[in-house]
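Ticket #4471: complex job returned nothing on first submit. Input attached below:
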Amino acid sequence: MNVLAAFENGAVLLLLPPLLPGIIGKTKAVFGGRKGPPFLQSYHDILKLVGKGAVYSRTTTAMFRLGPVLSLAALMVAGALVPLAHDSPTSFPGDALLFAYLLGLARFATMAAALDAGSSFEGMGASREAAFSSLAEPALVLALAALFRATGGLSLNRMFGGAQWSVSGAGLVLIGGGLFLVLLSENSRIPFDDPATHLELTMIHEVMTLDHGGPDLAFILYGSSLKLLLWSSLLVRLLVPLPPGALGWAVWTGGVAALAAAVGVVESSMARLKMTRVPQVLVLAVCAAAFAVMLALK
Amino acid sequence: MLVCVSWLTLGAFLSLLLRDHPRASRAAALICLAAGCLTGLVPALRVLSGAEVAPIHLPWSVPMGEISLALDPLSAFFLLPIFLVGLAAGVYGEGYLVASRGHLPTAAVRFFYFLLTASMSVVVCARNAVLFLAAWEVMALAAFFLVCAEDRRPEVRRAGLIYIVCTHTGILCLFVLFAVLGTRGGSMEFSAMSAAMPGPGPALTGLFALALVGFGLKIGFAPFHFWLPEAHPVAPSHASAVLSAVVLKMGVYGLLRFISFCPVVPESWGVVLLALGAASAVLGVLFALAQRDLKRLLAYSSIENVGIITMGVGLGCLGLSHGRPLIAAVGFAAALLHVLNHSLFKSLLFLVAGAFAQSLGGREIEGAGGLLRRMPRTSLLMWVAAAAACGLPPFNGFIGEWLLYRGLLGGELVEGARYAVFAAAALALAGGLAAACFTMACGAMTLGEPRGRAAGESRDPGGLMVWPMALLGAACLAVGIFPVPAALAAVRGAAVLGRLAPGADLSSVDGMLAPLAVVGALGACVLGLAGLFWALRGFWLRDRSVETQPTWGCAFSRPSPAMQYTASSFAQPLVRVFQGLLRTQVEAHPPSGYWPASADFLSRAPDPVLDRALAPASVVMETGLSFIRRLQHGRLQYYLLYVLVFLVLVLVWKL
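Support reply: We reran it on our side without changes. The output follows.
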């Protein structure tokens, strides 16, 4: 791993994430027959928020201010483990588990900050987030187990990118499907959560950040788009073999953009599920991953 | 080693002798505790860094007994939690006893606390079964008297009864186990046990079953967990900390020692342990989620964690039975690491729970709220321990779990025991549920607005209580960021069981541990980056308007603390998903009519083993065996008659 590649990965991680919500928004606008916000809308939003002051609830303590900061820090370190078009420079055997638990830390910090406001809305969001993410966790670990069997590596670099369609195609379909569901749930997307809804009672992720504003909200927005990028990168590398060099970046960027568009298509073509249905869909993801493990074990 | 035990025994008796002089006895207790624990830690650390300590053999008048003590890395590793937690919880206990203002029998609590610590250190060093069992019984009884410290309250007496029945059922199994091994080998020395082990067959399975029940009742994995949530909450908090964080681990030690006797380990043992561990991990945390009493919640969370430890032991057994010393070493090392880590964060959580209970006057989660503002130090430490308990980096809980995942997912078991992968899914589910459980408990207690007057007026406890907690919190972070020394020590301890070839295999385990240094460094990076963003945020906001306003409540103008999300509502989605397992009972009177006057809601999660199986069974047993009671009616003359009849019978038999 040379310095230039690590630099390219780092630059992409820092600059690209806010583009993905833009692509999703555009896709939804096309489906809805609207013009929609520009691709770069999220960049504008984040920059505008960074320039603002802040309003805090009287109930809150330092926990409320620490939440977005700690969450973004955890996501950034998780990002350092994820391979993009180039392999991650800080990879080691077993980093996949650190990745999963760093996402857990980010979620933990967000939930703590949400509960700090003492609002029922935010408590409800944190409760749902905790419930659904704990069901998504086994799906991720089983998918990792299956990928380990298919590729023989325990690092994200080798697990995502080493599997071949000709050898383990059926397993890849199951893992890809399962992880796509986990991606939608982890990134608070339809059918699990509706980021565009305007009623607090029906939100999960958005409701946890109701009382945040200014730079804190900028951290949160950037963090959630970063998380989407990380998951997309993993899924793209899983499903598409990347050629080396500049072509690799082109294929990777195309793949990530296509995935964002796919999320947009899902969002435009179906409604959010009833909250009681969500665990069932997550169990479906767990089952898909479990079947992939069985295929890999045979 | 002897010096340390004698310091602790001295402390025990001094605390009885000086019971009328509170200050002198407190000073004596603190000195004896510090001297005992610190002198005990020295040989433990020396053995773990590779040195040898000469064993001690002294004659003992008990038949077949000998005072034979030795320190190998396995014993030394278990001494770490005993003395670290023993010291921190003991110092905290002094503050706790002062703050409890006479609710607790001070001298007795101190005496049994010293006795408990001393007996545990003998348990792990004993090399003679008679000595081991004697120390085990002293430990069990000292723990019993600590559980029953507030014996005026009926629920304490009930808990004490359940505890003593369980612990004696366990020790009965151990008596049989060691009696069989002792008679087969002709000696009660541990060194003779290995030769006394029968080959694979029903006899070996029987011995394993005895060990599983005997030690399992102490470890507290399902289905032997039921006494834990009864006994641990009612003890004084520093005693609960030691009970939950260290005493359970003595069972783990016993099980590991038993496995080290076995020349052959059948595969079925590993499967049984892995399955029991996975079941305890998931069920423990699920039931924790349904609890409303903080210490009861922590006790259920201990069941989760001993489940994780048992999974590690099971993985180690699988490695042994498949002849893969590397995977055995990783499994046992993961179990040992989690033993240490759990003892650090769980004792901290119990100490925090004690501080909360003292200032709130109760252990209910729902009555608290907003404590981070009123008890900032204690609450902050609770969050640290909670993050560690959820296995989140950069804290210590993650290290052991990482090693366990590494062993479960890793390729070394490819053939034969491939189902071990599914245990990893159980571990992941338990991790996710633990995050839900601890955000619920910490969130409801320390964040938001206080839900009662006691919560609004609470203050941090004094230095004697805060400093030991801070020490434990710092240890959680230190092991999380510098995990390699702890992991190496655990590998040394595991090598006692793993039958590793000292040179080659240990170095390949070291290779497996190398990533832990990176894990620790990346954990430090998270903290560093968070600090950077915090500074950035402060820089951006430095001369802009920062206002405070009420929390957004959809423009509702009269918010009250009672409108906050409660712990029960937080847990509701998960409780409903797992209703089939939990079977919570709800008594609710929802508001009705246009002007509802009152409403209430009560949910309870009865323990499936204790309340649904054992309690009915013991009622049946009581009625079934009531005819025996006719023999015991309290009339002295009949008792004398029994003695006479017995003597005559013996005389007749001997003639």
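The longest strand of chain A covers residues 54-57. Closing as resolved unless it happens again.
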